[in-house]
Amino acid sequence: MPPSLLKTLRTALQTHHRFLAGALSHSEPPIYVIGNPSADLDSIISAVVYAYFGNLTARHHIPLINLPNVSSGPELYRLRPEFVKALHLSTHPALEGEQSWDETPESAGALLRDHFLTVADFAAQLKSSPGNTSGRLQADAVLVDWNALPIASPSATQQQNQQPKGCIPGLEKAVDFTVLGCVDHHVDEGFLPRGPQTKPLEIHTAGSCASLVTHTLQSLNLWHANPPSTDPQTQQQQQQEQLAQLALSAILIDTTNLTSKDKVTSWDTQAAECLTRQLSANNNNTTTNLYNQVHQTKQNSLDLLTVNEILDRDYKQWTETPSSNPNPHSKPVEIGFCSMVKSLPWIVRKAGNAKVFIDAVEAFARARNLGILIIMTAFSSPVKGGEFTRELFVVALDGDRHDNNDNDDSDDVATTALKHFVDQAEEKLSLQQWTALDVVDRADQEEEIARSLVGDDSGQYRRVWVQADLSKSRKQVAPLVREAVTSL
């Protein structure tokens, strides 16, 4: 068992600085454990937990939080307070020799700055590192909660059966990552070769990547899942309990406390059972209590963000290409998917009014050159007695307004595809006409929101619904959008 979680993270950060300074020998380069670009709770915790146990091997492991515009410290606390909550619950009461810390911007911000590394930190440090004088940095990586690097490495001369290289936004001009392994619960994109050179390679359908990380670490004989004894816990058992509770918090959030029928798999239930057994009898954070605290923090966190930050907070983007060529000028369609734990009326009120919100949505899409943008909400409706509710808002953007290319007819493809999606989705997702299921002040305000969200098709094609089939989450909606584009 390595030292405590916090001490291991401090040591990992020191190893990173030594690596940049050229102070590590060629025989001891670190492995960066990199989560996906949404940097959600599951992604961050999967990277932290995997890196912690990875340090039991002969290689240093460093968790890298995949945020290219956010430094560790108070800003990371503001944007990911649910991670701070999960970390605080896991590390308190503090172990002997560990300093206690509070969930305040000052205390938590200082702890994050001294223990965690973001892509923004990495990039800033490269610019000032005296050891960075020989061009692009070569580094090894393990991917968690995704399975393909988005940018090809300019120095890659990949051959069959070699580990693939690639780059990530924020470091694309400075660092080439050679991917040694992967643990993920998304669709396999085929980036990683199957064979002994890629280890671990665990890509399975599961509600949470942390479930697969737990399984992988145990199968590699790195995490010995022994239940605590009835005697006073040893320091080692307390350390193991910290990691178990941290991993469990990610699993519970990603599976709605193991109640989401469309997400929960045997990977999740087995991991949760194993981790729960590692919690001591005097641990007050039962699974429900742990879920409620972290979930409430995640919901309240949106109050601290701008509309643009809310849209970007749990965001996925991918490209789809029509199977035929309906127009010689048409291009692949960029699709963005935003998930949020507040209602559409809530974010409209956050923006000020519906028009300002639509303008913010258009600006968000234009900055990413999107053809289609989908926003899915999930919240408890006060109008329906606290019942869990989903809304779906879809937009096809006018290509000329976000690409400035007079010959680009990809907007026609996007609009046609989204209309095809509407035809298919209304029945398959059991969509119903939208009405505000959050509290609104006046009936005319609800009408104004509905009118603005649907639009008049003059510059954008927009539709909004209440989703009656609550089992259909992003994993079920995204394939329908993909099919709508590729079938053209």
UniProtKB/TrEMBL annotation:
Domain DHHA2 residues, every copy: 291-485
GO molecular function: exopolyphosphatase activity
GO cellular component terms listed in the entry, alphabetical order: cytoplasm
Source species, domain of life: Eukaryota
Record-linked Pfam families: DHH, DHHA2
Keywords: Hydrolase, Manganese, Metal-binding
ATP-binding among keywords: no
Necessary cofactors: Mn(2+)
Annotated PANTHER family: BNIP - RELATED, EG:152A3.5 PROTEIN (FBGN0003116_PN PROTEIN)
Protein name: DHH phosphoesterase
